[in-house]
Structure formats: structure tokens, C-alpha cells
Amino acid sequence: MPRNRSFPLPHPLFDEPTFNEPTTTPDPTGFSVRHPSDKEQYARIQQLLSKDVVWFPESHAPPDGLFSLATAWGPNGPGVVGAVQKASQIVFQMVGDIGASTAAKYPGEIRVSDQVSDECLTAPVGSRPAFLYILGDVVYDFGQAQYYFDEFYDPYRNYPGPIFAIPGNHDSFILPGTPERDAPLETFQRNFCSKETVVTAEAGSLHRTAMTQPGVYFSLDAPFVRIIGLFSNSLEDPGVISSEQGKWSTVPDYQLAFLSAQLALAKKDGYAGALLLAVHHPPFSYAPPPTGSGTGGIHAGSPAMLAEIDTICQQQGVYPHAILSGHAHNYQRYTRTFQFSGSPYQVPYVVCGDGGHGIDPLVRSRPGSPKDPPQNGQNVSYLDPHPVVGTTTLTLDRSDDQDYGYLRVTVDAATLRIEFHQVGQAATVLQPADVVSVDLRSHTVLSGATPATKSPPPPARPSGRGRK
């Protein structure tokens, strides 16, 4: 099996997780499996998208269990962790909604996967991303196994490290008539929650082994950072992480106990690193004020889900340093300010759902009425009308509904830094389109939006499939 090449190792290792192909290969030029139009499908199931939730199994790990980055790297783990600790910081990438459901959208997905992979392959060791974390919606339209190769494995064939993921609604919604063995969440678990280091049928001719996450929700523990990942189920809107006291009777309440246990563990340990929460459906998604013009984007926020998260955070006396989501196919960054455990907290809420599937406007026009576009720094507290944590101030600090992009996150002993990188138009590693930094000890935002300096797009990659 080919070695990964993300971190230099002293000698070859065997029986290890495998990530990228032995040589960098040219981009695919199209799907290997025909993707039929989804218009008829959506017309047939439109009502189901607002009411059909799915059951999911309990994680293999206990509620307070941690899945370590070293475990994901296998025998290479000590070397990777050692390199991160030597650099005194960890760098990783996050992206949401990567799958392209049509041939017209495929070039956008390839541009994102190319830039993410190239950065990981070429960055200096001290600032090289240690992993990629997908914020849901890996495969469109509804997580079918036959599309995993085209929409995940082939675009990311050159990515030289672990790729973690939480499922999104498109990775879990069950089309009527789907056999149980072909349920999309089963396919997701086969490729991301495997109990063994295997190459699945979905990987086709490629060598990337399945990830061994303990479940569709899990806590990733790495130097300087801990990411609590939740599964927000299969509805188009809203996100659902529990039965909500019987409203969604088929949804188990495992994640409430899990989140409570994870926060209690952080408190018990006096955890000093960055504590992040990742969930596919965003707590907040922009819509104009009631007196404004136009209407909100395709996807709204999930206030009931946020209320459950906030309630557990209050009970445990621990709040994440940032909450990261996808689902809305654009970029949005909010700052929420509130009193927590007697101290002022500033928490970024970042939506990054422009990872290749498409770009949707933040505001849509009503007939006869112009759109009311958002402004940087706009007070949007009306999106948070009944907060569990008491009075809040919510600002929309920066948004982008024109460009594909991804997040580059850096954490050291004192600071969390989240950068948004546009793909193909702006943003070298040193020139992100947006930046927010958080002081880990005080939960205070240190810096906000930084305009990008436009730079030429990266050189075109070779065309043709060209795989071994």
C-alpha cells in the first residue's frame, strides 16, 4: 500500500491507513457514472424533505469517549502528532457541501478539491494541514453509493491525509423504495465509520482506505483542538439532533447525552485547547429584517437545535469557542455576544457550505420588490429572538455568495484563527478573504474581517483522468 506523504517519516510503514494515490494524477473530466436529473425526484418527494427524519445508531465510543487524530493516522500517528507539537500549532481545513450533483457543477467541486489538496501537499511542514473535516453533504443527491467515487474519492484522490466527516441531510435522506442495505447513512458509515482499515467498493480503483470514526457523531481530539461533531439529520430544514421531547419520535436522543458528556469531560479535565462544535445545519442563516426587502436564502437557521445546544452548554458551564456549519451554499460569519457563567463571551458562528455543490444567494427577491443585501457588521439580532443563554447581540460580520471556498483553521496554545479562502479567484495561504481570531482563555474575538487581495487564479491542472 502506498505511504501517505503529508508528514515526513523516517522509514516506510505497513498495515497503515492510506490516503492519497502514489503519484499526483490529472483531474477527471466528468462523471464515470451518469447522474440523472434530480428535478423529477425533488418534485416527487418535496413534502417528505420537511418531515422524514431518520434513525441512526449509537456511536461505538462511550458518550465521553474521544477519537484521536493519532488513531486516524494509524502507525503514522506519533510522527504526525510530534510534528504538530514541534510546530506549537495545528492547522486543518474544513469545508461543507462538496458533492456535485450535475456535470455542470462538477468543475466547481474539482476547483475546491484541487486547491485544498494542493495546499496540503505544498505547505511547509510547520503549517501543513493535518486533516480535512467535511461539514456534511459529501454526496448528492441522496448519498447513493454509486456516486461516492465521482463526488468524493476521485476529486480527493490526491489529498494526503485523513478526511473526517459528519453526515448532512443529503447523506442521510432515504428515497422512497430504497432497500435497507442501500440506505445512504449505511453507505456513509461504511466509508467513514468503518471498524477496519479497508478499501471500500465505493473507492473503485483508488487506494484511500475508509475512515474509522466511531459513529455519525463523534469527538475528534487533536493537539490544541477538540471538535465535537453532531449529526443534524435528514430534513432540508431545520436541523434535528434529538427527538425534541417526542416531536421526532424516530430520532434517538443519544446526542444530547453525548454533548453533555463531552462538555462535562472538558470541564473536568480543565481543557485549555480550542473547543469547536461542528454540525451540518447552521444555527443562523441570513434573512433580511422584517422591514427589509427580499426574503432569505434557500436555507434558514435552526433555532430549536441551537436551543438544545445552548441548554446543555449552560447545564455544564462550558461553551464552544466557535460553531461551524455548512448546508447554506455560501459563506457567512456571525459573532454572538452574551453573558455566560458570569463572563462576556464572543462566539463566531461560521457557515461554509460553498465547497463545490453550488452557490446560493443570501437574499432572494420577492415579486415587485428589490433584494436587501446584507452589510458587513450588520446587527442581525432579530435572527436570535429567544436565546436560551439570555440577551444576545448577533452581528453578521462577513458573507460571500459569489465564490466557492473552504476554511483553514490554525490553533495554538492561546488563539483560534479561522480563515475563509475563496477558490480560484482570491486567497493564497497568506491572503484569506476573511479572518476571525478568538482568544481561547477569554472567549473574546481578537480580530474580524480582513479583505482579500485578489491574486491570479492557480495554474490549470492537466486534463484527462490519467489514474493508475
If you had to describe this structure to a student in words, what would you say it looks like?
- The protein is an alpha/beta fold and 468 residues long.
- The chain has one domain (59-447): Purple Acid Phosphatase, chain A, domain 2.
- Helix content is 18%, strand content 20%.
- The chain has helices at residues 39-45, 69-73, 77-87, 106-122, 148-153, 184-192, 254-269, 303-316; strands at residues 67-68, 90-95, 132-134, 163-165, 218-222, 225-230, 274-279, 295-296, 322-325, 331-340, 343-352, 363-364, 378-379, 392-400, 405-411, 415-422, 434-439, 444-447.
- A nine-stranded mixed sheet has the order 1-5-6-7-9-11-10-14-13.
- Strand 6 (225-230), helix 7 (254-269) and strand 7 (274-279) form a beta-alpha-beta unit.
- Helix 7 (254-269) runs parallel beside helix 8.
Can you describe this structure in just a few lines?
With 468 residues, this protein is an alpha/beta fold. Helices cover 18% and strands 20% of the residues.
